[in-house]
């Protein structure tokens, strides 16, 4: 069983090649699987205010067009929301932590939640809205999972509201993961960003993908750890975290989101220039 541990850090563009010599090879297919918030776009005060840095976006567009490269964005956001924010043709998108997947041709894979969980979800949203949607905190209802945002709640009230929100989520049988100034309530099913990543790779490249495809995954959050764990030994993953003590399943830690541009430039140097 793989364990989380403190991962080696990468601090610059040069260090990608130094620390992963020869991992990328332009003769090999490459799958790039990326989280959105905190990874492609820096964290902003409100989910509607995020955008990708210009150079990162430009590089990502170039990579997505390359015939040897496959791009998927796997986000906790609702599917349409993340599609609208990234908006790159030919990309596969997964929303709601992988529960909904859409391929470039418009075909989909939706994880069907049991009726009881759907009912619990509706009840949970109602109770959260009644009891803890106040003092600046709000519920982002994404139909099958939700995010309880408390960034704008006064410090003196945050802990109490957070605690109550977590209790409500757990009481309705949902998982409650800590995120950036938010709690992610996810359904209690055996499907997450890791399962979604493996599913997408198998659909795209077939059962033998581990032999034929190089994989790069990057994410910044606890929900991304599911993909990092699933891809251990099958690809290379990067956890964005400023805290040097963070425990992760990723192969490397990137101390700042800005290093995502370098990660993509490293790939572009190998595949494009
Ligand atoms: O899996 P991701 O693509 O990283 O999405 C995770 C959640 O991201 C969003 O919330 C977070 O980012 C916001 C914008 O930077 C920030 O204001 C908030 O504090 C963060 O928690 C999004 O709103 C959620 O739906 C996603 O699940």
Strand and helix map with partners:
Blueprint (H helix, E strand, L loop, with lengths): L12 H7 L9 E6 L19 H12 L3 E6 L4 H8 L5 E4 L4 E3 L5 E3 L4 H18 L5 E4 L4 E4 L5 H17 L3 E5 L2 E5 L6 H13 L3 H4 E7 L5 H6 L5 E5 L11 E3 L4 H13 L2
Parallel strand pairs: 1-2, 1-10, 2-3, 10-11, 11-12
Antiparallel strand pairs: 3-4, 4-5, 6-7, 7-9, 8-9
Helix pairs in contact: 1-9, 2-9, 4-5
Summary tags:
single chain; 273 residues; alpha/beta; Rossmann fold; Alpha-Beta Plaits; eight-stranded mixed sheet; four-stranded antiparallel sheet; 9 helices; 12 strands; 36% helix; 20% strand; binds the ligand O=P(O)(O)OC[C@H]1O[C@H](O[C@H]2O[C@H](CO)[C@@H](O)[C@H](O)[C@H]2O)[C@H](O)[C@@H](O)[C@@H]1O
**Which fold name corresponds to the CATH topology of the largest domain?**
Rossmann fold
Question: What is the strand content?
Answer: 15-25%
**Chemical compounds bound to the protein:** the ligand O=P(O)(O)OC[C@H]1O[C@H](O[C@H]2O[C@H](CO)[C@@H](O)[C@H](O)[C@H]2O)[C@H](O)[C@@H](O)[C@@H]1O
Instruction: Report Rg.
Output: 19 Å
Average pLDDT, all residues: 97
Q: Superfamily at the CATH H level of the largest domain?
A: HAD superfamily/HAD-like
Strand order of the largest sheet: 5-4-3-2-1-10-11-12
Pfam family, one: Trehalose_PPase
Pathway: Glycan biosynthesis; trehalose biosynthesis
Keywords: Hydrolase
Catalytic activity: alpha,alpha-trehalose 6-phosphate + H2O = alpha,alpha-trehalose + phosphate
């Amino acid at each position: 069983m793989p364990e989380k541990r403190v991962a080696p850090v990468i601090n610059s563009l040069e260090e990608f090649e130094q620390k992963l010599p020869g991992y990328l090879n332009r003769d090999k297919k490459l799958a790039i699987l990326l989280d959105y918030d905190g990874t492609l776009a820096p964290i902003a005060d409100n989910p509607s205010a995020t955008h990708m840095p210009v150079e990162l976006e430009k590089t990502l567009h170039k990579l997505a067009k390359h015939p040897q490269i496959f791009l998927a964005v796997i986000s906790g956001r609702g599917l349409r929301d993340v599609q609208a924010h990234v908006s790159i043709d030919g990309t596969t998108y997964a929303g709601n932590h992988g529960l909904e997947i859409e391929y470039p041709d418009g075909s989909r894979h939706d994880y069907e939640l049991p009726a009881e969980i759907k009912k619990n979800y509706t009840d949970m949203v109602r109770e959260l809205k009644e009891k803890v949607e106040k003092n600046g905190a709000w519920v982002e209802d994404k139909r099958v999972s939700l995010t309880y945002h408390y960034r704008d709640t006064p410090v003196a009230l945050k802990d109490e509201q957070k605690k109550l929100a977590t209790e409500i989520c757990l009481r309705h049988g949902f998982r409650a993961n800590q995120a950036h100034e938010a709690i992610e309530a996810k359904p209690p099913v055996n499907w997450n960003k890791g399962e979604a990543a493996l599913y997408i790779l198998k659909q795209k490249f077939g059962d033998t993908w581990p032999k034929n495809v190089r994989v790069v995954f990057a994410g910044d959050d606890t929900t991304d750890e599911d993909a990092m764990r699933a891809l251990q030994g099958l690809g290379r993953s990067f956890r964005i975290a400023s805290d040097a003590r963070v425990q992760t399943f990723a192969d490397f830690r990137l101390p700042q989101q800005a290093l995502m541009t370098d990660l993509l430039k490293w790939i572009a140097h190998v595949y494009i220039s």
